[in-house]
Amino acid sequence: TYNGTWKVDHSENYEKFMEQMGVNMVKRKLATHDNLKITLEQTGDKFVVKEASTFRTLDMEFTLGVTFEYALADGTMLSGSWGMEGDMMKGTFTRKDNGKVLTTTRAIVGDELVQSYSYDGVEAKRIFKRG
Ligand code: MYR
What we know:
Lipocalin, mainly beta, 12% helix, binds myristic acid, 10-stranded antiparallel beta sheet, single chain, 2 helices
C-alpha cells in the first residue's frame, strides 16, 4: 500500500533532471534540500495527496485514469494522469508551456517508496522512507 507519509531520503540524478526541466541553478540548489514529504491516502481509485516541502504545502486529489492539472513549485503547469500497472503507479504528464511529456512512476520497494522521473531523455529517482 502507498498509504502513509513518505519523506525524501535521497535522490539520484535529480539535479540533472531539474536542469533539463529548465530550473535555474539557485532553485536547483534549494530543491536539493527541499525536505519533500508526501502523504498518500488511497481509497479505491481515488488518491488524496498532501505535499509539504521547503517551497510550499499543497493538498490535492486525483482519480486514477482521470486527467488533472498540477503546478510544479516554480509555477510550471502539467496536465496528465496517474494509472496503475500491476502494483506500480505510472503517471504521464504534459507540460503546458512546451508540450513535452514528463513520465513518472511510484513503486514500493522493500520499505521504501521509489519515484522515478523522466523528461526529455533525462531520468532521475527520489527515494522516500516512511516518516
Ligand atoms: C502527486 O501524485 O504527487 C501529484 C501529481 C504529481 C505529478 C507529477 C510530478 C512530477 C514532479 C516533477 C518534479 C520536477 C521538478 C523540476
